[in-house]
Amino acid sequence: MPTEQVISELIQKVNTLTSRLSETEKKLSSTEKKLSATEKRNKELTRRVQHLEIHGKENKALLQENSELKIENTELKFKVTELEARLNSNSRNSSKPPSSDGYKKKPAFPRKKKGKQGGQQGHQGRTLRQVEDPDKTVKHKPGPCDCGHEFSDAELSVAETRQVFDLPQPRLEVIAHELLKGKCPVCGKWHKGVAPEGVNAPVQYGHGVKTLTTLLNVDYRIPFKKIQTLFSDLFGYAINESTVYSASKQCYKRLKEPMEIIKLKIIEAMTAHVDETGIRVEEMLRWLHVATTELYTYLFVHEKRGRVALESEQSILDKLTGWLVHDCWGSYFNFNELHHALCGAHILRELEGLIENEQSKWARVFKTYLMYVFEMPLEERIKRRQQIESRYILICGMGEKAEPPPGKTPG
Q1: Helix-helix angle 241-254:256-268, to 10 degrees
Q2: Which end of the chain has the smaller Cβ count within 10 Å, N or C?
Q3: What's the whole-model pTM score?
Q4: Of the residues 321, 342, 363, the one at which a domain ends
Q5: How many CB atoms lie within 10 A of CB 351?
Q6: Distance between alpha carbon 114 and the CA centroid of its chain, in Å?
Q7: Strand, coil or helix: 325
Q8: Is pLDDT larger for residue 7 or for residue 325?
Q9: Is 290 in the same domain as 249?
């Protein structure tokens, strides 16, 4: 091959290589620019990631704070509802005693209007009627005639009789018991009469006075001082407070045997109602406990309200065998061998509280149904017992769905 041709091919290859090198340099420059842009973008992305991480931590903290605020808000709403319910509570919609209502007391059961007021048709009234043998008769004679004639008793007859029922002048009857003595003319032995039982002193009050003061003090709850004032105003004798106290104590001792009979009758009963209320004894808070049936009532006072009192020697609950009706006080449920029933009046109060404070629909339905059954004649209740119980269970199910029982708090 000629030299010139070889040189020409070499020059051509050099030019080709130079062109390729130039293109490679351009590509390298473009790649460097892209790499620089990528590095800048990576830096920007890194910055954004760091920024997002910071915001993520802040967001997590905000979510935690929001969750805590929601819980706190729920608790505050519950407390507000509870305080409003407590503020609006009375004996009609809670277990508070009627004495806490002041001058705005209402009946435990709502009363319906029953037509016109006064005596109803067929009602046997108790109007005063004249008696055949009055204690005292006063005759009122007419004055003289216009002509001057004055009437004698023989000329007059009864035209009209008007009787006045009034109290006699109150006075104490003083009975003197004279114990006579005498000497036997045969043997010379002296004999003396025996005073009636209970007549033990030269001067004392009789059974009538003691009975009245005990009745006034215990049943009518009149204090000793007022009884003393009353006796002084009515009879002119200011009976001693100690006499009133002693009479009540004597009555209590004499009632021991009847009280045992009452306790036995309540123990034998199928159903007993029990309750407790606070009273003041010598300026100290004490608890008056009651167990009662339709005919018998047993009361006792104790320092405690709950289990200690209900299981004391004075209580008879441990001897009962039937149904125990009460106000859901927890201590009553310690008597596991008994059947328990809740007082209807207390249930109605609790339902009324739910209606007034929480606008509960099922509570309104339940209250209406209980009052419907309460006003139903007993014979009808017996006939429809199965239907009544089915409806009762259905409404209770509605209540459990609307307001499920609270779960146990762990810990």
Answers
A1: 50
A2: C
A3: 0.63
A4: 342
A5: 21
A6: 27
A7: strand
A8: 325
A9: no
C-alpha angle 81-327-110 in degrees, rounded to nearest 5: 70
Taking the CB of residue 294, how many other CB atoms lie within 10 A of it? 8
Please write the tens of the pLDDT for every residue from 164-175. 999 988 999 999
Do 246 and 268 share a structural domain?
Answer: no
Identify the domain boundary among 193, 222, 254. 254
3-class DSSP state of 335: coil
What total of structural domains would you count in the chain?
4
Q: Which position has the token pair 């339940």?
A: 366
Q: How far apart are CA 333 and CA 337, in angstroms?
A: 9
From start to end of 103-210, where are the E strands? 181-183, 190-192
Per the structure block, which two tokens stand in for 75?
């608790």
Based on the fold, state whether residues 242 and 281 are members of the same structural domain: no
Helix (H) or strand (E) holding 324: strand 323-326
Provide the β-strand partners of residue 274.
Answer: 291
Q: Please give the C-alpha separations between residue 319 and each of 219, 260, 311, 330, in angstroms, as whole numbers.
A: 28, 13, 10, 19
For residue 289, what are the contacts with CB-CB under 8 A and spacing of at least 6? 274, 275, 276, 299, 300, 301, 302, 309, 310, 314, 315
Determine the Cα–Cα distance for residues 320 and 313; give it in Å rounded to an integer.
14
Torsion angle in degrees (nearest 10) through CA of 49, 51, 54, 60: -70
Q: What is the pLDDT of residues 35-62, one digit of tens each?
A: 888 888 888 888 888 888 887 788 888 8
Q: Which residues pair with 286 in a beta bridge?
A: 279
Cβ atoms within 10 Å, residue 96: 14
Q: What is the rounded CA–CA span in Å between residue 65 and residue 128? A: 80
Task: Decide: 286 and 264 in contact? Cβ < 8 Å.
Answer: no
Q: In terms of residue numbers, what domain contains 31?
A: 27-82
Q: Which amino acid is at 105?
A: K
Q: What is the mean pLDDT of residues 313-332?
A: 94
